[in-house]
Amino acid sequence: MRSGDHRLRVSLLSKALVVGAYQRKCELIAAHSDIELTVMSPPAWAGQRLEQAHTHGYALRVIPIRLNGHFHLHHYPTLGAELRQTSPCILHVDEEPYNLATWLAIRQAERLRPRPRVLFFSWQNILRRYPPPFRQMERDVLRRADAAIVGSAEARIVWQAKGFRKPIYVIPQFGVDEDFFRPLPRPAEAASSFVVGYAGRLVVEKGVDVLLGAFSRLPPSARLVIAGSGPAEPALRRMARQLGIAERVTFRPFIPSTQMPAFYQSLDAFVLPSRTRPGWKEQFGRVLIEAMACGVPVVASRCGEAPNVVGDAGLVFDEEDIASLAAHLGQLMNQPQRRALLAQRGRARVIERYTMRRIADQTVDVYRALAGQEDGA
Questions:
Q1: Cα–Cα distance for residue pair 157/320, rounded to 1 Å
Q2: Which residue among 76, 122, 230, 374 sits deepest, i.e. has the most Cβ atoms within 10 Å of its Cβ?
């Protein structure tokens, strides 16, 4: 920490923080007495407007964004002025290192005197080579950044393979608020049905078609709720009709983050049936820890990080294996005691590993380590 400073000034740039539930991490970071936190977020990202749900204890600055919704090319035209005003000791760019926003942020940080320590965040768990100019921006960010936070051990391997030799910390981007995402008793009238759920994008890589195929093998009393939107929705609706299960399948639109606990609490099982694609595999599966925190048994495919998130607190199956997924769902449907055991394990695993407080504390430890480097500690 710089001489004369009593608190470590941290500026966090994050488009993900338009989601209100995610802001709880910022409150918990700011609750550390040695941290003075400023969060910079756009007014919206890709159709999601900023939800100001958890804004106590830190400064939230809503800043303009250009090329909103363009993952690789969005950036913040007033960022330089914001950084000159806040004069951070640590700049945390909550963004992939090959994106324009990250490259511009680190260049702006280099102009400050004294220069702040800079770290980026990455979910990238596949070794990919990007075309110009993203390849050059990535190389420059890796040369100039002081540290990285990544969402999985596989992501750390990727950035080590790309030559990043600075500290890399494995910390999921966000945890869950265990008081907000919590179990609630199911209504008595719900006991006569078995409700399976999915939440997320409706795209090929999420494997929702596999879930429909498996669900079609369950007895008529079972119901399926699919929450989300995306280009695969029309095909999934057609598939439900072709399988003769359309009357038992409910498609719901996007659910705001503040309403997600009620969605999970209405389920008997949650499924994440992702499939690996040439340029993508499951990077974490946040919906898994949200469902687990709500005491809902989870079933996940062996795609990317998902089975590591579930551990022994849920059930896993090979990608595309409809029969195995159907068997898991049948077991959960017919064995209430098994459901209860997995629900208990899931909640315990989240409390141990994935709470928002744990993620916030680990992130603060990274800030302190960087401040120690700055002071020559």
A1: 26
A2: 122
What are the tens digits of pLDDT across the range 333-344?
999 999 999 999
Q: Tokens 């760019």: give the residue.
A: 93
Quote the tokens at residue 200.
Answer: 């997320």
Distance between CA atoms of 164 and 158, rounded to whole angstroms?
9
The conformation of residue 227, written as its DSSP 8-state character, comes to E
The answer to whether the beta carbons of residues 175 and 349 sit under 8 Å apart is no
Alpha-helical (H) ranges within 216-254 are: 233-242
From residue 177, how far is each of 23, 289, 296, 307, 336 by CA, in Å? 10, 10, 15, 22, 26
Residue from 25, 40, 134 nearest 92 by CA:
40
- Read off φ and ψ for residue 304, nearest 5 degrees: 55, -130
CA count, 13 A, side-chain hemisphere, 19: 18
**CA dihedral (262, 300, 25, 78) positive or negative:** negative
CA distances from 191 to 104, 284, 319 (A): 54, 31, 30
CB atoms within 10 A of CB 177: 21
Q: What is the mean pLDDT of residues 7-16?
A: 97
Q: What is the bridge-based pairing of β-strands 249-252 and 269-272?
A: unpaired
Tens of pLDDT, residues 306-323? 999 999 999 999 999 999
Domains (range + CATH), the chain: 8-175+355-375 (3.40.50.2000), 188-353 (3.40.50.2000)
Taking the C-alpha atoms of residue 79 and residue 23, their distance in angstroms, rounded to an integer, is: 20
**pLDDT at position 56 over 90:** yes
Secondary structure (DSSP) of 290-357: HHHHTT--EEEES-TTHHHHHGGGSEEE-TT-HHHHHHHHHHHHH-HHHHHHHHHHHHHHHHHHTBHH
CA distance between the termini of the chain: 10
Closest-CA residue to 207 (of 274, 149, 139): 274
Lowest average pLDDT, out of 28-32, 142-146, 194-198, 258-262, goes to: 258-262
